[in-house]
Amino acid sequence: MGNSRVTVREIARLAGVSVATVSRVSNGTGQVSEEMRRRVLEAIEKHGYRPDHLGRALAARRHGALGLVFPGLSGPYFTELIQGFESEAVPARASVHILCTHLREDSDDQVLEMARRVDGVAVIGGTISEPALLRLAELVPVVVLAGRGPETVPSVSVDNAPAMTRLTRHLLVDHGLRRLVFVGSPDGSPDVSERWAGFLAAHRESGVTPPAEPVRVAMQQPDGVLAAEQLFRDPTTAPDAVVCANDEIALGALVGALGRGLRVPEDVVITGFDDAPMAALVTPPLTTVRQPVRDLAAEAARLILSAVDAPGGPAPDSIVLPTEFVVRRSCGCATEPPTGGTGK
């Protein structure tokens, strides 16, 4: 029978190793040198140490939980992220704790407090400050999701700038449009900042002067409606195309344009980014960029779980996932071959 009075700290002291090393040996996880393993096993055998469930959890700093830090939960984008994250966390028997900062001034403190209750954290890019992100990475494994952080913190993102460059070039070159506006705020959002940069790059490559500034709005459908009201108030200055930072804005802009009696794409082109489910269902369906939202979060969860299972290992490499340009009728392209024939 095991000796319940012997603690993991005493075994660590007797073996001359850390508590974490005793935990790795007793649980069979992580990397331990043969010499350390032998010393730990001898101490365990000699003193009859048998760790209980709680002791193992405390020694390994395992809570059986992972954290997700979002600025908010509005819209289908965050729902997809949660489902992707859970697709890896649940099979690993880890619960998911979600913290929505809502851009509060104490966001940094909230996230650092969360680190006491979870084994690792995925943080949406731009949600907390860089100093807080670095401090968080000292406490638990951290992955920046949908953005990039410091070089020492791994991230999982998509090729935002090249994807937006391709979409914008399609409008400038293939359709010959000239008056394009970008709707979305790059401030505080790595994703939107990269998409704005891709929008500008396409103008430079095409020799077209871009707008000096984006139309800064939030990322939800009502914000797209408000943007449309602003853009189409004066027909003499209305744009040829509205390039939106995400599909939510684009759907709102579509509603706003149609509500003012405009035809899409005959009078104005509207495009999005994400390929949310509604993008293919509206009339006209949205030309957009499909990003693998669930895969983004699943990859982040996998990186965190790997780091938790092998503490002290090298930091994983950052991952950039590819996107797909999806052409539909809102940009003026015919998505189906023309019907024709001899008739009867």
Task: Tell me what the structure shows.
Keywords: DNA-binding, Transcription, Transcription regulation. This is Transcriptional regulator, LacI family. It comes from Micromonospora krabiensis. Residues 6-60 form the HTH lacI-type domain. InterPro entries: HTH_LacI, LacI/GalR-like_sensor, Lambda_DNA-bd_dom_sf, Peripla_BP_I. The strands form three sheets. The protein has a six-stranded parallel beta sheet with strand order 2-1-3-4-5-10, with helices on both faces. It has a three-stranded parallel beta sheet with strand order 6-7-8. It has a two-stranded antiparallel ribbon with strand order 9-11. The chain has three domains: 8-59, lambda repressor-like DNA-binding domains (434 Repressor (Amino-terminal Domain)), CATH 1.10.260; 65-157 and 293-322, Rossmann fold, CATH 3.40.50.2300; 160-291 and 327-331, Response regulator (Rossmann fold, 3-Layer(aba) Sandwich), CATH 3.40.50. The radius of gyration is 26 Å and the shape is elongated. It is α/β, with parallel strands linked by helices. Helix 11 links the parallel strand 7 (241-244) and strand 8. The chain is built from twelve helices and eleven strands. Helix 2 packs across helix 3 (34-47).
Which helices and strands occur, and which strands form pairs?
Blueprint: H1 8-15, H2 19-27, H3 34-47, H4 53-59, E1 65-70, H5 76-89, E2 95-100, H6 107-114, E3 121-124, H7 130-139, E4 142-145, E5 155-158, H8 160-174, E6 180-183, H9 190-206, H10 221-231, E7 241-244, H11 247-259, E8 269-271, E9 288-290, H12 293-309, E10 319-321, E11 324-326
Helix pairs in contact: 1-2, 1-3, 2-3, 5-12, 6-7, 8-9, 10-11
